[in-house]
Amino acid sequence: MKDVLQTVISQYGNSPRLLQLINDLNQYIDPSVDIDNFYNTVWNIETAQGFGLDIWGRILGVSRNLQVPDNPDYFGFSQASPGCFPFNQKSFYEGTPPLTKTYQMSDDYFRKLLLAKALSNITATNALAINKIIQYIFAGRGVAYCSDIGNMMMRYTFEYQLQPFEIAITRQTKIFPVPCGVRGFVFNSKLPLFGFSQAGIRSATTFGFGVFLPIGADYAIN
User: Fold this and answer.
1) Residue 56 to residues 53, 104, 169: CA-CA distances in angstroms?
2) Is 140 exposed, middle or buried (0-12, 13-18, 19+ CB in 10 A)?
3) Strands (E), 55-203
4) Could you tell me the CA-to-CA distances from 6 to 10, 23, 36, 80 in Å, in that order?
5) Across the chain, what does the average pLDDT equal?
């Protein structure tokens, strides 16, 4: 450590053997490298890696591992869900519930989620703050926003198809804040959809211009 002799109390300041031992130990054991490694690998969330980010995850209540449905491919139309194929390519759905697999997020993506969760923990649950969180997590993906749909309900709308692990994020991490006493929903599908204006979905259109609402495109998150 730097200026090690300043840590010696005055009553031992004139002991040559003790001072020599302290100086020798200071040369042989230099904790500065370990301290720097600890700071960069664990303490500083901007540079933390591996187990350091896992520690941050336990503090913020976010797991690196997501349980993602392992949906096999079936016969179906593109509007039904991802993984549907036309005639002579895949079989019909046989009624067996899909299995789940564990998806482990990379350090960079997990760090982004941790920072978003930290912001979610301290931010006001208003549209401006929530939309910033959405744009931070899904930057460059497309149009996404939250809206008040009335009757103490709100909806997170993604005007594009979320990937299975992204759907798991919305369901399992509780990153997206929902005000107390309010029911929260997530809607994700390519627009426009067939529907009437009263449905509360932006760009709802009439016959011949939009597809039906895909299965599982609108679900509750609390």
Assistant:
1) 5, 15, 17
2) exposed
3) 65-70, 74-75, 84-85, 99-104, 144-148, 153-158, 183-188
4) 9, 12, 22, 72
5) 79
Same domain (yes/no): 142, 194? yes
3-class secondary structure, 114: helix
Residue 140 belongs to a domain: yes
Residue 146 has pLDDT above 80, yes or no: yes
210 touches 171 (CB < 8 A): no
User: Helix, strand, or coil here: 220?
Assistant: strand
Are 173 and 66 found together in one domain? yes
Residue 84 and residue 11 share a domain: no
Mutual orientation of helices 127-137 and 107-122 as an angle, nearest 10°? 180
Q: Facing residues of 201 across strands?
A: none
Tens digit of each residue's pLDDT (9 = 90 or more) over 113-139: 999 899 888 888 788 888 888 888 888
Domain with 20 in it? 4-43
Coil vs helix vs strand at 5: helix
